[in-house]
Amino acid sequence: MIENLAALRREYTQGGLHREDLNADPILQFEAWLQDVITAGIPDPTAMTVATVDAQGQPSQRIVLLKDVSEKGFVFYTNLESRKAKELANNNKVSLHFPWHLLERQVKICGQAQPLSKTEVARYFLSRPRESQLAAWASAQSRPISTRQMLMSKFNEVKQKFADGDVTLPAFWGGFRVVPHEIEFWQGGEHRLHDRFCYRLEQQGQWKIERLMP
After folding, report:
1. 109 is known to lie in a ligand binding site
2. Is the predicted pLDDT of residue 15 greater than 90, yes or no?
């Protein structure tokens, strides 16, 4: 048992976040922060939590990698038979979270997930390393499997199947674009007096920025 877990804490001292520091466009603000993470050499800068909800209202989270960001939204790819894809088919409301702890920053995004076109999916799939392409075929994502040996056996079967040619796009593999209506930027502050700014998309298509209590 870990002793005195409740006492584990540290101060956030890397600086505050002010309204005048923010870009009027949250996508440009996000790209600036993402570039800071990349420049700082922090591992997995594009890792994000994707939260979905099942038919019973039970939330579920997992970490995936952001593969594109633009004014259209935030893109990730997945097996369309996975738990997250099935939940998104039933309820496309989704939340993303980027935990950039070493810079004492977080970004939270709320929006709706829209399926990507086959053209977009194929373009990305064909750009992946061959081993990743094979793994997409080998893994029936989210389904039970008794041993890792069975998974590796399936991978080797797929590897042999495509030994003499290119790996084709599986029909069960695709992606989503999360179109945001709310984006929050969080910067750690001393004494737990953090700085939080939330962008909310208004009906006129403009973003409204509000400071939130920490």
Report:
1. no
2. no
The reply to whether 177 sits in an annotated binding site is no
Per residue in 195-208, pLDDT (tens digit) is: 999 999 999 999 99
- The answer to the question of whether 80 is labelled as a binding residue is no
pTM of the full structure: 0.94
The CATH number given to whatever domain includes residue 72 is: 2.30.110.10
Whether residue 158 is contained in a domain is answered as: no
Q: Point out the catalytic residue in the list 19, 123, 130, 192.
A: 192
Q: How far apart are CA 140 and CA 162, in angstroms?
A: 18
Backbone angles phi, psi at 179, to 5 degrees: -90, 115
116 beta partners: none
Q: Is residue 4 part of a domain?
A: no
The dihedral formed by the CA atoms of 134, 137, 139 and 142, expressed in degrees to the nearest 10:
140
- 142 burial via Cβ count (<10 Å: 0-12, 13-18, 19+): middle
Q: Is 200 a catalytic residue?
A: no
pLDDT for the residue numbered 140: 87
Token pair listed for 156:
């080797």
Residue spans of alpha helices (H) in 40-188? 83-90, 118-127, 130-138, 148-161
Note whether residue 206 is domain-resident. yes
Sorted by sequence, the CB contacts under 8 Å of residue 155 that are 6+ apart come out as 134, 135, 138
Tell whether 198 is covered by a domain. yes
CA-CA distance, 144 to 103, in Å (whole number)? 37
- As beta bridge partners, residue 107 has 98, 185
